[in-house]
Write a structure and sequence with these properties.
Rossmann fold, 2-enoyl-CoA Hydratase, Chain A, domain 1, single chain, 17 helices, alpha/beta, 2 domains
């Protein structure tokens, strides 16, 4: 194969053997002489991305020729535990090779996107500069190769996940994370989700091009979709230019964008407990279905692993204090409260998590979060086990289901793997 490597198979899908052959080709073209390699994989929240398999295979193939380290692209998430590392990457990579990213302390500012440019990108809704900063490890001149591994999938903040986001947000700093998230929120999530180019993507790409293109960064991007009822790898894209990202987006939009003929009156969304432990992540159930929800509809979120609101303790406290109120209320709170103004990613998250009173959300944790806590942030509550009695998900299939009593519900087994909207709403955005 020539480089970049763009391999797609939606008919038969790509097996692990196919994937290993693709990575072997990548190694032959880009890593054959590398002696020092840094890999940026996702964390456990992208467990189903095949990035863990790719990362482990890269290590096995390159460990005898190169010094290797791994910097999971955590963003604001907590560092991975040993148990999560084993689940994601297997047990063969020594734990000491995994380096934590601390988004508040480990970064170096390289430059900024001007306030004028941010104003242009946001339709004059936001006027502030945005720093471009990354973990200081990326700037160490010893690296012969930096490999960013991740999945392209519709995303609520940037439109389509990964590519330059994995570097500038996943291994980025406080200002970049806060302002990129807030830029997306004020511009409008429903104008962003599922789009290849958005104001947030443009800002990050421009920052990457201006300040990071000199680094030896290559991207390995996966695209997965359902095949015969199971999640399957259908595309792998290796490269370091926009065309690699764009082609991966085209495939993801084909596989992960679900256009419905009618809005959903009642949706049931399950959050895998090992993956979704907070509303910071679990609100993907809201982000990814909101454009499909009918006015006055109900979204039921089954969240057995939920134990708090924010991945970060400081953000958790802000969520508890301000709650998921309407967009206008959160924007007013930002203007009036310095603690929220200084933590714009939290403000953006609160905007993303509101329904603006258009439909209702019922959160259903097990025993990790109480009724009082759920209701204090303005969601409705039901215990997970009680809701399962009414909606036994083991009897449901993804998509439309008609229950024995005649009620029609729409079931989603993992909101991270798609974006649901109506044909009318998506085409009119």
């Amino acid at each position: 194969m020539t480089y970049p490597i763009h391999r797609v198979d939606t008919q038969n899908t790509l097996s692990d053997d196919d994937l290993m052959a693709i990575i072997d080709d990548f190694i032959a073209q880009k890593a054959k002489t590398a002696k020092r390699i840094l890999i940026l994989p996702p964390d456990i929240t992208r467990f189903y991305s095949k990035a863990g398999f790719i990362t482990a295979y890269l290590y096995q193939q390159l460990k005898d020729q190169a010094e290797m380290f791994f910097l999971p692209a955590l963003g604001t998430h907590e560092p991975m535990s040993d148990k999560e590392i084993d689940a994601m990457f297997g047990t063969q990579i020594p734990k000491e090779l995994f380096l934590p990213h601390f988004w508040r302390t480990d970064v170096v500012k390289l430059g900024e996107i001007s306030a004028q440019r941010i104003s242009e990108l946001s339709d004059n809704k936001l006027s502030c500069s945005m720093e471009i900063a990354v973990n200081k490890l990326l700037l160490d001149k010893k690296w012969d190769l930096i490999i960013s591994v991740g999945q392209i999938v519709p995303h609520e903040v940037i439109g389509m996940a990964n590519y330059t986001k994995n570097v500038l947000v996943g291994a980025g700093g406080e200002d970049t994370i806060h302002k990129s998230h807030f830029l997306g929120a004020v511009y409008g999530m429903e104008r962003i989700m599922g789009r290849t180019y958005t104001p947030v993507r443009q800002a990050l790409n421009e920052g990457f091009d201006q300040y990071l293109r000199h680094l030896p960064i290559e991207f390995i991007l996966t695209v997965l979709g359902k095949k015969n009822g199971k999640l399957a790898l259908q595309g792998v894209f290796c490269g370091n230019q926009n065309d690699t990202y764009e082609e991966a987006c085209q495939l993801s939009q084909q596989l992960n964008l679900i256009l419905l003929d009618k809005p959903i009156k009642k949706a049931i969304v399950f959050l895998e407990p090992a993956e979704f432990k907070t509303t910071w992540l679990g609100n993907k159930a809201i982000y990814r279905t909101r454009m499909a929800m009918a006015d006055d509809g109900e979204l039921i979120i089954l969240a057995p692993g939920l134990y708090r609101f924010g991945e970060d303790i400081e953000i958790d406290q802000l969520i508890r204090k301000y709650g998921y109120k309407t967009t206008d209320e959160i924007l007013t709170a930002v203007d009036e409260n310095a603690e929220l103004k200084n933590n714009l990613s939290a403000a953006a998250h609160l905007i993303h998590g509101t329904t603006d009173n258009r439909f209702n959300v019922t959160y259903c944790p097990d025993d990790g979060v109480s009724k009082e806590e759920i209701e204090s942030v303005n969601y409705q509550y039901c215990h997970y086990k009680e809701m399962l009695k009414r909606y036994p998900i083991e009897k449901m299939e993804n998509g439309w289901n008609t229950l024995e009593d005649g009620e029609e519900v729409f079931y989603v087994s993992n909101p991270a793997l798609g974006l649901w909207t109506t044909k009318e709403k998506f085409n009119n955005q």
